[in-house]
Each structure stands twice: as C-alpha cells, then as structure tokens.
Amino acid sequence: MKNELNSILQAAKKEIDSASSLAQLNELKVNYLGKKGEITTLLRQMGSLSPEERPVMGKLANEVKEEIQSLTEKKEDYLKQKELEDKLLKESIDITLPGTGRNIGGLNPLTIVKRAMEETFISMGYEIVEGPEIENEFYNFEALNLPATHPARDMQDTFYITDEFLLRTHTSPVQVRTMLKKEGKLPVKIVSPGRVFRKDDDPTHSPVFQQLEGLVVDENITMADLKGTLLLFAQKMFGKDKKIRLRPSYFPFTEPSAEVDISCIMCDGDGCGTCSQTGWVEILGAGMVHPNVLKNAGYDPNKVQGFAFGIGIERVAMLKYGVKDIRDFYSGDIRVSKQFIGG
Length: 343
What we know:
Order of helices and strands: HHHHHEEHEHEEHEEEHEHH
Shape: elongated
Radius of gyration: 41 Å
Distance between the termini: 86 Å
Family: Belongs to the class-II aminoacyl-tRNA synthetase family. Phe-tRNA synthetase alpha subunit type 1 subfamily.
Number of domains: 2
Low-confidence stretches: none
Largest sheet: 7 strands, mixed
Oligomer: single chain
CATH architecture of the largest domain: 2-Layer Sandwich
Helix content: 40-55%
CATH class of the largest domain: Alpha Beta
Number of helices: 11
Strand content: 15-25%
Mean pLDDT: 86
Main location: cytoplasm
GO molecular function, one term: phenylalanine-tRNA ligase activity
Binding site for Mg(2+): 255
EC number: 6.1.1.20
Strand order of the largest sheet: 1-4-5-9-8-7-6
C-alpha cells in the first residue's frame, strides 16, 4: 500500500503541474480526493492490513492527501491569476487614442434667468417658498378676492381637473398658504417661483409657463417700498442704467394695482420697434395687497400692509436674450441651450 500511495502522489504531482485550466484542475481534485477518488478507494483496503500496519498507513495516506490538496490550491491560485491577467490583456485600453467626443449642452435660458432672479431676491432678504401645481379653487381664486361670481375669473382661462381642483393659473396661492401658515406673524417676505397653466398658445404665450411672485407683509409698507424693490430687481437683471415706471392697472388681489415697465432693452428708451417707439416695455404686474386678501389670510388690514408682484420668467428671458418666440424655450432643441453654455 505504501508503494501505491507514493505512485498516486507522483502521478498527481505531474498532472497538477501540467493542468492548464481551472476546469481540468477541478477534475483532477475529484479523481484523487473525491468520494470515489484514488486515495479514498485505497483507504477502503485498510481492513486487510494488520493492526500494526493500519495506523502507519493511515498516517501516510493523510499526508499524501494533504500534499495533493496543497498542490491543487497553489495551482488554483496560479490559474486564477493567469486567467485575470489574460482577461485584462484582452480588455486593455489604448490610452494614446483620442477620446470619443460628446455633445455638451447648456442650461436652458429659463433656468439661468430663474436662478438669477432667485439670487437677486435672496440678496434682498426674501425666502423662496414653493407650493403644489394642482390647487383648489379657494387658494387659487377665492382667498385672492376672486369669488365664483367675480368677472375677473374670465381673464384666466383655466384647466380644471374637477369642479373643485385645477392646474394653478398663477403662483399667488403660495402667498395665501404662507400667510395662513404664519398665523398672523410678521414679517412675511417671500418669492414663489414655479410653473403655472393657462389656455394660451402663441409666439408670446404658452399653456405652461413660469412665474415668480413676491409678497411682503409688515407694518408701514408703502408703494415706495414696492417701487424701490422692483427698481433694484430691474437694474440687477438688465443693467444699472435701467429705469422703471408704474402705470395704473387692475388686479383683483391688489389695490392700488400697477403695470410695471422698464426702459427698453434695445434702444435705452429712445424708441424702437421693440418698444413700439415708446421707450418702455412692460415686464410685470404689481400692487398693494388687497385688504380682502389680508383678511382671508388672517391679517388685520388696519394694522399691516403688504405689496405683491408677479413676474413672468419667460418674459424676462425673452427681453434679456432677444428671443421672439416663447416656444423656443420648450422646443427641446439643443441648439437653443448650447448658446448658453457657461451661463
């Protein structure tokens, strides 16, 4: 039996050394060390040995078995490393080749303008507040002094979801929600940017567009505060030499109300085709918060005042960049955004 064990060991060494794959090595492990392997088969013959020979042969068999096990483990590590090296060699990358070019776009001009507007008002101490795009009639209309019978509701072509819920037509509902949440606390100083929805679709109007509305409520707030705020905004967005003017207008949620113009971007107020030779272009609507709106939001109009304004982000972007068709902002054409790489 001793000679047979030595023969098995020598044969195993040669075969393990010449194994060229993990599959071949696994097969050798089964042949020598498996339940039906050569060593196991030989150990079954131990019963024919004398009691004196059994422990000697048992010890020798275990040594042979352990040596074969050690040889297969070393060979397995070698084959795995070689397999990895071969794989890496096949998958190697030639770093001297030029890289694959990528088309790089840019931020949509609306995103650039929106961020610039937000930064302007943050620098003036405003807080940015957002609200839901699906609103109910109370926040979108009634709390803003637009009851069901109010004729001004016809001014806003609304997308209704149900008899009660709709796609908001402005971001003013965020102002109401904020005031109600404040529960009469002062001051209130917020801007609320976001998407709004109306039944419009032409070169200067879109069924989906963006607004940034502002609200300030505190003691002793006047139209002078409103005008100063909007003048600073206009100069931040369009240049330090820009002027503004306020024209009387009507909005149900402000009293008095005003349309706000800025000196023409193209001609600096001299008169051109863009401003219809007037030297002014309309940019936003504003006014002092209507007493009914303050009451609906839990504030006493005899003690506090406020002003509000609504700015169309597309309107600002069109003036700032000379875009004539609002639909260009939503076309998805990368040539539009590529013009604004780097902001």
